[in-house]
Design goal:
This protein is of the alpha/beta class and 288 residues long. The chain has a domain of 88 residues. It is 55% helix and 12% strand. Strands 3-2-1-4-5 form a 5-stranded mixed sheet. A hairpin with a 2-residue loop joins strand 2 and strand 3. Helix 7 packs antiparallel against helix 8. The longest helix has 19 residues. The protein is elongated, with a radius of gyration of 22 Å.
Length: 288
């Protein structure tokens, strides 16, 4: 039932009908809610184990998307790295959410878009998402900037291409690529855009330039935050199907279940097996 509800996204009424038609089980919506409530503790324990593993990671990535809880707009957050991902559903979209998740821990590196609540948490360096930035640069190109934005877009796409080849390149080669990217950016920043949109973009790049190419020489990082968006995508589909949650505890349980399912996917464990292991009180095995 948990699999059909949280993974396949069946609303409670449809789930009650499916259980009756497929298995001959006549279970009311209220009884289904009670079954879900009974699973809160094991999924909470499993999520705590996932979070503990994330706290030992050298880097973290994060993102958030809107979700409906009790007819109000809340936020679904994801924090992930490597073979683990943890979700939280919170009322706020502020730094307080990240602070509550991290506690006193600060990872060495962080990947996110440029939203302020997700910036400033890395102990060493922060990598901004180049995919988001390329979309913003394209807007400046569309409004008519021809001197700064097109060349910047080409440079950012060049950096992303290097990122895709990163696993096959030697450390010395990556250092040369990063030095070359920095030099090219220096030359670009000497240009003075004429359009207002170009001036604003130039000002933005000046602000975040030290966060653009961190990934090139750091194999724990990527050029984009697409991993966060992929982790959130099933929840966006779930939101459209179910229209959100009736209760706060139901939202919190869903976040824990998503933590288990997404972590299991990264560790090559089937969703149904991850649910069974969790209900049996067993910690998900780490990726080989």
């Amino acid at each position: 039932m948990i699999y059909l509800r949280a993974v396949q996204g069946l609303p409670l009424e449809r789930l009650s009908h499916a259980l009756r038609d497929l298995f001959g089980l006549r279970i009311s919506e209220g009884a289904l809610v009670n079954i879900l409530s009974a699973s809160r503790q094991p999924f909470g324990i499993q999520t705590s184990a996932i979070k503990d593993r994330l706290m030992s990671a050298p880097a973290l990535a994060s993102d958030e998307t809107g979700i409906r809880v009790s007819k109000a707009n809340w936020w679904l957050w994801v924090f992930h790295h490597g073979d683990s991902a943890a979700f939280m559903i919170e009322r706020r979209r502020s730094k307080a959410v990240v602070e509550a998740f991290l506690g006193d821990h600060r990872p060495d590196y962080w990947i996110s878009d440029r939203y302020g609540a997700q910036m400033g948490w890395a102990a060493k360096e922060h990598q901004v998402c180049l995919a988001h930035l390329i979309r913003d640069v394209q807007y400046v190109i569309d409004v008519g900037d021809a001197g700064f934005a097109p060349a910047l877009k080409g440079l950012l796409k060049r950096a992303c291409a290097i990122g895709r080849r990163q696993p096959d390149l030697a450390d010395t080669t990556l250092k040369r690529y990063k030095a070359d990217l920095d030099k090219r950016l220096d030359r670009l920043m000497d240009r003075t855009p004429t359009l207002l949109a170009g001036v604003k973009l130039h000002r933005l790049i000046k602000k975040v330039r030290h966060h653009l190419f961190v990934f090139v020489t750091n194999r724990d990082l990527s050029a984009t935050n697409n991993g966060s968006e992929r982790a959130l995508r099933p929840s966006a589909v779930y939101r459209k199907i179910t229209n959100g949650f009736r209760s706060e505890w139901g939202a919190a349980l869903y976040a824990d279940i998503r933590s288990v399912i997404e972590t299991a996917r990264r560790r090559a464990i089937r969703a149904i097996d991850a649910i069974r292991l969790t209900l049996e009180g067993k910690i998900l095995p780490s990726a080989a």
